[in-house]
Amino acid sequence: MKILIIDGQSGRLGAQLIEALAARLPMDQHQLIAIGANSLATSAMLKAGAQQGATGENPVLVACRDADIIAGPIGIVIADALLGEITPSMAAAVGQSAAIRVLLPVNRCATQVAGVPVLTRVQLIEAAVDKIESLCRGETP
User: Residue 94 in contact with residue 6, Cβ under 8 Å?
Assistant: First the structure.
């Protein structure tokens, strides 16, 4: 499966997600691709174990076309989120992709997700990895 991780700012959330996925998924069967909204985020995710990486709007547009799973903070589907790093085109590409989206409900950038318990970053990563792992096993969302 092609698993696309999108993050911005420091890339810390994406890097932690990639580290956890790389530890739990057989990497000969799954491809972890990191797309950073900036070069710092891309670098952090590549250091964490992504097999490929790129930076910016066009890589998001291209990679979303054939991804099986897209993961990242909820801001990747909101135009101008992550302090303006997510362009309207990037948010639309993620939202319109046929991929299954696994979004981490990070309550920042003036976006609050109602009805979702407040979890630590570690708990969010664990929940996302559990969900992606079950999707990779073919379980339905």
Answer: yes
